[in-house]
Design brief:
There is one protein chain. The protein has one domain: PH-domain like (Roll), CATH 2.30.29. It is an alpha+beta fold and about 120 residues long. The chain contains 2 helices and 7 strands; from the N terminus they run βββαβββαβ. A hairpin with a 5-residue loop joins β2 and β3. The longest helix is centred in the C-terminal third of the chain and has 15 residues. A 7-stranded mixed β-sheet has the order 4-5-6-3-2-1-7.
Length: about 120
Amino acid sequence: MGKFIITKRLNGEFQFNLKSNNGLVILASEGYSSKANCENGIESVIRFSQDDSNFDRKVSKDRKIYFNLKSGNGQIIGTSQMYGSDFACDKGIASVKNNAANASVEDKTSNRLAQRVTSAI
């Protein structure tokens, strides 16, 4: 089972990473001005990651492959790591889909473990 990890950046913004069950980061968020907005971003990952059409594959300047997960209005929710092949990128997308649906949430901005965010599905 995957895990969303909420952290706070040095500039005060909140962010989350989705980690697979082996501990690797498979999706990273943008910065959010509030924890509530960050939690809404997690809800968006849970909701929109189950539809292949929300994954936008890209190629970086150094020819690495990655993807963005987008919401229904086209806004980027999260970005993957860089991959060396289309096959590896497709496996990364499958991992996000599999791990996000039942992921727990760990809030590292407080001294407690957060409960799983209520699913928007």
